[in-house]
Amino acid sequence: MNRIDALFQSDQKNLLNIYFTAGFPERDSTLKIIQELDNAGVDLIEIGMPYSDPLADGPTIQESGSMALKNGFTLDLLFEQLQQVRSITNKPLILMGYLNQLMQYGLEAFCQQAQACGIDGLIIPDMPLDLYAHQYQSIIEAHGLHSIFLITPRTPDARIRKVDTLSKGFIYMVADSSITGKKGGISEKQVEYFERINAMNLNTPRLIGFGISDHATFSTACNYAQGAIIGSAFIRHLDAGNVVADFVKMVRGE
Amino acid sequence: MNYGVDEHGFYGEFGGAFIPEMLWANVEELRSKYLDIMYSDSFQKAFKDLLQHYVGRPTPLYYAERLSAKYQTKIYLKREDLCHTGAHKVNNTIGQILMAKRLGKKRIIAETGAGQHGVATATVCALMGLPCIVYMGAVDIERQAPNVARMKMLGAEVRAAESGSKTLKDATNEAIRDWINHPEDTHYIIGSVVGPHPYPDMVARFQSVISEEMKWQLKQVEGREHPDYILACVGGGSNAAGAFYHYIDDERVQLIAAEAAGLGVDSGETAATSAIGTNGIIHGSRTLLMQTEDGQIVEPYSISAGLDYPGIGPMHADLISRGRAKAYSITDAEALESTLELSRLEGIIPALETSHAFACLPKMDLKPDEILIINLSGRGDKDLNTYMTAFEL
Ligand SMILES: Cc1ncc(COP(=O)(O)O)c(C=O)c1O
What we know:
The structure holds two protein chains of two kinds.
Chain A: H1 3-9, E1 15-21, H2 30-39, E2 44-48, H3 59-70, H4 75-82, E3 93-96, H5 99-105, H6 107-117, E4 121-123, H7 129-142, E5 146-147, E6 150-151, H8 157-166, E7 171-174, H9 188-198, E8 206-209, H10 215-222, E9 227-230, H11 232-239, H12 244-252
Chain B: E1 10-11, E2 14-15, H1 21-38, H2 41-55, E3 61-63, H3 65-71, E4 74-78, H4 89-102, E5 107-112, H5 116-128, E6 132-137, H6 138-143, H7 145-153, E7 157-161, H8 168-181, E8 186-189, H9 199-207, H10 209-222, E9 229-233, H11 238-244, E10 254-262, H12 273-276, E11 278-282, E12 285-289, H13 314-321, E13 325-331, H14 332-346, H15 352-358, E14 371-375, H16 384-390
Parallel strand pairs in B: 4-14, 5-6, 5-8, 6-7, 9-10, 9-14, 10-13
Antiparallel strand pairs in B: 1-2, 3-4, 11-12
Helix pairs in contact in B: 2-4, 4-5, 4-9, 5-7, 9-11, 10-11, 14-15
Bound molecules: pyridoxal-5'-phosphate (PLP).
Residues 87, 113-114, 116-117, 192, 233-240, 306-307, 351, 353-354, 377-378 of chain B line the site of pyridoxal-5'-phosphate.
């Protein structure tokens, strides 16, 4: 069974998904960070593939990506680094990046490599839903990979239903109308949106991401979904040279 | 005629809307409404009225006698440089500001390279009393200082894009991010035939007034609507789209697109997208773009800020790939030479972008009775600093 499905079927609460950028802060820090995240007890690990023009991301993630590219990051290097990853963690691993990266690598070749490394899912925010269903889904699924789609406060109900049928593993529920890395608390309006989605009784579980940065926002998000995703706040923590485990403890409120 | 775009916004294999979900509602709102709004009577009336009385249309189709004599052929210039604000860009911003008002939007954002689109956007925002924020690459802010000053005088806020190459591509990224953060009240006025569907089609339709006028103007002087060639420079491709639009299905007309080769197509310092670009995705559109094998977008170079873009509108990617349009790569030096030639032969100082179109002339095999129209997309005032350095004035 896909590790993402196994995790959600275990009915755990307060799932913590941490995003980090591959090749940042150092070219070869990818595996070390995965190891430390695993040791610190995160539940899912999302590996960002650095991209020159990451439209959905804010300055923190873009800068970490630029740094990784300067460090010499390539997809081939990433897959080389990830060859041994299953000897250090059994956690679900998700690759996040942009469709152009997959197109240029070759979708089939990309999926083969991802599968060989033991990757469980993909988040490609600029993948159009219709095109996915017509062109990409069969190849991606044939390699045992889950495609995880996003919804936002402005996604209409009918489209959410469509995402519910296409998104595998979980739905990435974008907490706010914003790019990644926004700071601040969770507003009443956001809570209304979380409740509206819960009332839809979707088949696919959800994780809430964007703007989750600390214990307060993490625990609020966990009241309305199975867990939450943190990216920019973790990158800032790494950038300041801090220890991975301390971040996870802070978020968990330990 | 639909001029190539299908209902999903594709021109052949190019186009579409490859956007993160955070943009979907904005783009879908526009997509579902733009044609109905554009072709309503009240919109058409307001649009035509402003083009005539505010922009100064129709722009002349001018027979360039001395230039024609030099190249032994008949050359007409479509004088978009005489538009209010000095370039064709305003045709699109007039259309989009009227669109924004009908969509009930209260805040306008735009990206700009040379600053021409920024000025054209700031202008229509002043005209309509809407707040305007223009994203501009930090590098471009330096090299297009007069246009930055113009935007400020018009009441716009100019925000520097400090990421990536700090030019047009990055300004566009920042504008898109602003739109993601302000989805409800903001309209994004894109300055060229780029971006996710419906932008390329919408901008092409607004600019199509250029070829609409060419048809009857040429008929008056030559007794026929079609020239043998139409030449235009291509950054994203909006002035070319407007100049080609009503002739796309008329195979008698050869369409010529001038791209910026910078220091040379193979120099590593270029913006000649169709020459060295490959199929990929940029700013929500599948098109030809300059990228590494790994799909990282390459930073372009051209002396001309308005052509300094690593992609090309999907319509042009389609026209060029299927051989309907022919692309020429023009170096900085060739463009500068044409700038002086046009200044001295016709008393017209063109924008640097536009000079690239004129620089195709020596490369073409022209015959005496052939008719050419060159789209004179803008005037050179904004480039005086560059010209002063290049020509040691
Ligand atoms: C005078 C002029 N011509 C051409 C361009 C290039 O844009 P496009 O290819 O969209 O016409 C610009 C862009 O700033 C411009 O200012």
